[in-house]
Amino acid sequence: MKSWLKALARTRDKIVGGLASLIPGLSKADPVALEAWERALIQSDIAPRLVGEWIEKLRRKGGGSDMTQAIQAMLESTFPPQASFDWKGTQKPKVILIVGVNGSGKTTTAAKLGYRVKQQGHSPLLAAADTFRAAGAHQLKLWADRLKLDVVVGAHGADSASVAYDSVKAALARKADIVLIDTAGRMHTKQPLMDELQKVRRSIDKALSGAPHEIWIVLDATLGNNAVIQARMFKECVALTGVVVAKLDGSSKGGFIFTIRKELDLPVHFVGLGESEEDLAPFDAKEFVKGFLGL
Ligand SMILES: Nc1nc2c(ncn2[C@@H]2O[C@H](COP(=O)(O)OP(=O)(O)OP(=O)(O)O)[C@@H](O)[C@H]2O)c(=O)[nH]1
Ligand SMILES: [Mg+2]
Question: Of 82, 91, 272, 279, nearest to 178 (Cα)?
Answer without folding.
Answer: 91
